[in-house]
Amino acid sequence: MKSLPQLDASNNRKIGLFNQSKVLFFLVLILSLTSVSRLFWLQVLNGNFYRRLSDENRIRLVSRPPIRGRLLDRSGQVLADSKLTYALSIQPRLVSKESWPLLRETISDLLVIPQDSLDIYYTRGAGDDQFRITLHRNLTPEQVLRFKERQKSLNGAQVDIELVRFYPYGTLAAHILGYTQSITYKEFQVLSEKGYEISDRIGRTGVEAAYETVLRGEWGGEMLEVDANGLVQRSLGFKSPKAGQDLSLTIDLDLQLAAEQALADKSAGAIVVMDPRNGAILAMASKPTFDPNFFSKPFTTQKEYDELFLSASKPLFSRAINAYDPGSTWKPITGMAGMESGKFPADVRLKTVPCIKYGGHCFPEHNGQGYGWIGYEDALRVSSNTFFYQVGVGAGAEALYKAATALGFDALTGIEIGYEESKGLVGNEEWAQKGRGWAKPGTTPWIPEDIASASIGQAVVQITPLQLARAYSVFANGGYLVTPHLANLDVNWSSDHFRKKVKMSDSTLQTLRRGLRKVVEGGTGSSINLDLPTLPPIAGKTGTAEDSTGGADHAWFVCFAPYESSEIVIVAFAQNTPGGGSVHALPMARQVLKVWNQNRLPESM
User: Fold this and answer.
1) Which of 80, 150, 547, 578 has the greatest number of beta carbons closer than 10 A?
2) The pLDDT of residue 352
């Protein structure tokens, strides 16, 4: 009986040892499984990620930007190019706050850059580019050479090659060419999928934006192996960047220069020069203007920024594709409406008088007397108001709107920069019933005064100089509505898709053409031939328009030449320049015609 407790104690010790072995076994098993699981997670599930992190510690990718395609005029002269510059930057991950003061001082002494300037950009931080802080741009060749000599001791600093857009003629054709800007971080999040880098520049306006995919090219780069100090050991591979495609525009540099010069003494205005046969824009100038090189400057002052973006003169605003009251240049459209409606045939004669009353207003003849009984051709020659009041009111708003839209008004023209273009306005009963764009529907009905004003291009009619050039091209080319364009590429702009026949009888077209010819032969536009005896026969129309926004009168002149087989249409517009189209706008067009004629004479001799 006394030996039983000893047996129990021995058994208990054996059981305890067995349990400890089991615990140890399971503990080892758990640790082993945990280790295996961790290794599986690291090497299999996330192997690529950690391999990439490891590579990034020893491999540096140096991006090489593509050279943006040049913009050329129709004869190959350069209108926009790319310029190589050098910028000083640091990588924030390699430069701590503690090491920055010494690096700043060294760079300042070496490159002769004020420490305060370096501190300003260092304090601002990396911004959109999380891996680089640009400290100074446009380094001189001497500064670059000094940096290269001391580069190994400037850990974290680097010199980057940058390509900036350069416009050799400054403000010339600025609204056509547009400009480029650095992409924002928000844009980068979308565009990175298309190969853009955070330091990329993108076409923001004009042709630069419209043909971005053609001009930009593709990034290249070099893969470098570096040591723990960030020093290059060897190159692991290089991919050359692919340059963007050069783009030949339809612009004629000589005509563009002439158009810009014609606007020199005007406070605001526009000139559009177009080939009526296919819609090619030969020149398009707007004033006030701007220098697109502004957007390539490394830094700008607040004053410079305000002068460009906050100026009351709106230099970034293209007058060539903005809408204004057209005045008497609209009368051929009213004439087309009258003839095509059947109510006022081509041979009609109407009595013109001092004024005609519509609604509560007496609409005057501009000479205060009238011109007696006249037809369409003479009505255009003397620019009679009361003749076209009768035609417009008699034909009705619907007929006028139909003629206007057939000639491309109240719609975008189809030009590549149409995202910047106004479609203008041709008022009608439906538009008035809907509130005219500013009132409650049903509170602003169409009234007799509206159609009278619309008949001579006032108040309820707003058009762009480009739209007017397109419409007069119909009269110039025999009845075809063409599509204005700034580049050809592989597009056939003379195809039926871009050049459409306008539904208009031949008698209507020829009556309007003869009337526009008489304007220049002995009417309000006869001074176009002044001192230019070699000019071919020209047709055209003057216009003086009240500014419906309350400003001074606008001056217009539009013409096409040669009369029988036209090669050029010119619209000249002087904004808020009182005195008449024949006084202010016509001389502008004559300057362009003179250059055009000089350039064509050798070919015709």
Assistant:
1) 80
2) 98
